[in-house]
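Problem 12. The chain below contains 143 residues. Write out its predicted structure in token notation.
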Amino acid sequence: MAADRNSLLEARAIVDEHDVRFEIRPELAIIDGLKTSIGYEIEISGAADCDGPDDVPGCDRCDRTFSRLCRVAELAGARPDDIPAYDSSWHTTPRDSAGRRIVLTIRLTRYDGEEESDNESESERLVSIERRLTDLGVRRGRS
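Solution.
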């Protein structure tokens, strides 16, 4: 039980320090000429630790922020194979005064050849991860 409490405290510290947010989008693909939902994409973003004039995307501080976002995603229930390769770019939003956010994407998708009804497992995982993110203090929406 102490490990769970420590993990929760660790995650909340990360969420607070990096103003972590999440958004959910459908994962779409063109199949037989039709736009088809194949799952979901959860984008988790956090403010980068980079604040110096010499900092660049992909620096050690960015890597540290990404690692911390991975920890939040893991505690929310994401599996390592749900997370594509690290995109070291800084992302910005009009409301983000710092303008430097690191993004981690969780992809919950059906694989080729799976039936439409198999998408329910992605839906269930989406609900579970969304609930856990909220429990960890991650707010929905961009900063």
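Discussion. The radius of gyration is 16 Å. Students who got a different answer should revisit the alignment rule from Section 12.3.
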